[in-house]
Write a structure and sequence with these properties.
The protein is of the alpha+beta class and 550 residues long. It contains 18 helices and 25 strands. The chain has 2 domains: 271 residues, D-Maltodextrin-Binding Protein, domain 2, CATH 3.40.190.10; 212 residues, Dipeptide-binding Protein, domain 3 (Roll), CATH 3.10.105.10. 26% of the residues lie in helices and 22% in strands. The strands form 7 sheets. A 7-stranded mixed β-sheet has the order 8-9-10-1-11-21-12, with helices on one face. Its main location: other.
């Protein structure tokens, strides 16, 4: 049985203006107790198992707790997972990606891709409309793609998917021909994401701020914006007359739920208590140590690994410390990834490459990511960094102190890595800020190390982050890895592309441009009255088939 599937994600960034935190080393048990990720957890009864013999019920409200409000619910502008989970319900996409990574029809019934991967011709289904009644036609496709390019950096994900976009031709109402200046093999998968989801033509030119607060946000999806209160809640309403669900949906016609209420609940302990007391119906924000209590006992849990780039350290190679490959490699060799996985993220495998293992075409570079304390010490000795009486290395009177900046509630992961780095003489300082602060710092380039992940079910996510032609997160000079990333983006042959991706991934790890730490998974925890709340291909959530027992 297919389930709907998409991609997009989340990214995490550093933050300025926040004082460095000096921490007392914590035990692994304490760290595990502190860890809160929408990423870890266990098995439990899945929604599909629960509802296999149940008859869906129409109506009702489902209350879902999210951990953060990024101040925007426009799917074309946001990059945060919670916001993307909201945005997915508001827009449909040209295609849909199933859980096996295959691209399937949605608003586009068929398509052709030119041999050079520069031209994509989409043949649209008839009858689909936006919630204002206007048609989802080729003119709307053009307006959306042009509009995303015009948003520029505000479209943090979509703008990267449209790099090299030259325009869209509309030979008739049901045909859209999208062209690029250079090959863009990743674009077909990008059309399945909510970041390229379709909004009404007037919305594409509306004030971005009014799109963020939902007041001018008119989509093509099964739900519409009821209300949005920044920092508090978002209410979505079922759209009357919706009848163009994607390939893989469990039903056709309107959504079952009347409304979805997203409550902002920042504290993990409060989310846990709210689910226990059934003040909320479901969430993906339960701390790992609390998940077992929701396996049965009137609840169910379900997990899925997130594809894309796992939680990573991204060293800024314009900094003198990280311009030395030996220091970067030592920084990576000091990390005990098996311990991170077994203690902090039970149920997940240890990270094995620059890509998450669930990403299509991901390779296995685990040998290059093995713990090697002796090797780390040897590299640092060779680079001239000498351990002092306090155990911290120094060179030319300067301590080997580096700062990692981040916004996510993942301090437990970083505190354990902080201890591992200290064992080889690296003084790792932690600086946490808001999403806005960390984004600004990332854009300015004023950081030592970034910590974040990016979810996308296509290996081109590597080019998005690392290429010197795109984000260039390392601030490094052009090298062989950039050529490989460009070549894979131009290759439609799956086997050839896999080889290029594997070579690029290995180089990124070997040269420690990418220092992956831990895989990310998403776990739904819900009460037993909730049925068919499902994952899509990016491990984000799909509420179209969801319903509640009366």
């Amino acid at each position: 049985m297919h389930r709907p599937a998409w991609r997009v994600h989340t990214f995490v960034v550093p933050a300025p203006g926040v004082p460095l935190r000096t921490r007392t080393p914590l035990s692994a048990v304490t760290l595990a107790a502190l860890l809160v990720l929408t990423a870890c957890g266990g098995g439990g009864q899945s929604s599909s198992e629960k509802s296999a013999d149940a008859t869906p019920v129409k109506g009702g409200n489902l209350t879902f707790a999210i951990s953060v409000d990024s101040g925007c619910i426009d799917p074309q502008q946001v990059g945060n997972n919670d916001a993307l989970n909201i945005g997915r319900q508001l827009v449909d996409s040209l295609t849909v990606q199933d859980l096996d990574g295959k691209i399937q029809p949605w608003l586009a019934q068929t398509w052709e891709v030119s041999p050079d991967a520069k031209t994509f011709t989409f043949h649209l289904r008839e009858g689909a409309t936006f919630s204002d009644g206007t048609p989802v036609d080729s003119a709307a496709v053009k307006a959306n793609l042009d509009g995303i390019v015009a948003l520029g950096a505000k479209a943090s994900l979509g703008s990267t998917y449209l790099q090299g976009y030259t325009g869209t031709q509309t030979p008739d109402a049901q045909t859209a021909v999208v062209t690029f200046a250079q090959p863009s093999a990743q674009f077909l998968q990008a059309t399945s994401t909510m970041s390229l989801g379709l909004l009404s033509v007037p919305t594409t030119t509306a004030d971005p701020a009014t799109r963020c607060d939902g007041s001018t946000l008119v989509g093509s999806g099964p739900f519409t914006v009821g209300s949005y209160a920044n920092g508090s809640k978002t209410v979505l309403k079922k759209r009357t007359g919706y009848d163009w669900a994607p390939t893989g949906a469990k039903h056709q016609g309107e959504a079952y739920l009347d409304t979805i209420t997203y409550e902002v609940v920042p504290e993990a302990s409060v989310r846990t208590g709210s689910l226990q007391s059934k003040q909320i119906d479901a969430t993906t924000g339960i701390a790992s140590q609390d998940l077992p209590q929701f396996d049965g006992n009137g609840f169910w849990t379900q997990r899925r690994a997130n594809p894309g780039i796992p939680y990573n350290f991204f060293p800024n190679e314009s900094r003198p410390i990280f311009s030395d490959i030996r220091v970067r490699q030592a920084f990576s060799k000091a990390v005990d990834r098996k311990t991170l996985a077994s203690i902090l993220n039970p149920g997940d495998v240890a990270v094995s490459s620059a890509l998450s293992a669930s990403t299509p075409l991901a390779s296995d570079d685990s040998k290059d990511l093995a713990l090697d304390v002796a090797g780390a010490n040897e590299l640092l000795d060779e680079a001239g960094w000498v351990k002092g009486a306090d155990g911290v290395r120094a060179k030319d009177g300067k301590k080997l102190t580096v700062t990692v900046t981040f916004w996510q509630p993942t301090t437990a992961v970083l505190e354990l890595v902080q201890q591992q780095e200290r064992a080889v003489g690296i003084d790792l300082q932690l600086k946490q800020g808001t999403t806005a602060e960390t984004t600004a710092l990332q854009n300015s380039g004023d950081y030592d190390v970034l910590f974040y992940n990016l979810t996308r079910s296509d290996p081109d996510v590597l080019r998005t982050i690392f290429s010197t032609e795109t984000r260039n997160v390392n601030h490094r000079a052009h090298s062989q890895v950039d050529d490989l990333l460009t070549q894979q983006a131009a290759t439609t042959d799956t086997a050839q592309r896999a080889q290029l991706v594997a070579q690029a991934s290995k180089l990124l790890v070997e040269e420690a441009h990418s220092i992956p730490l831990i895989e990310l998974s998403t776990v739904i925890a819900a009460n037993e009255d909730v049925h068919d709340l499902q994952f899509e291909g990016s491990s984000r959530l799909w509420f179209y088939d969801a319903w509640k027992q009366a």
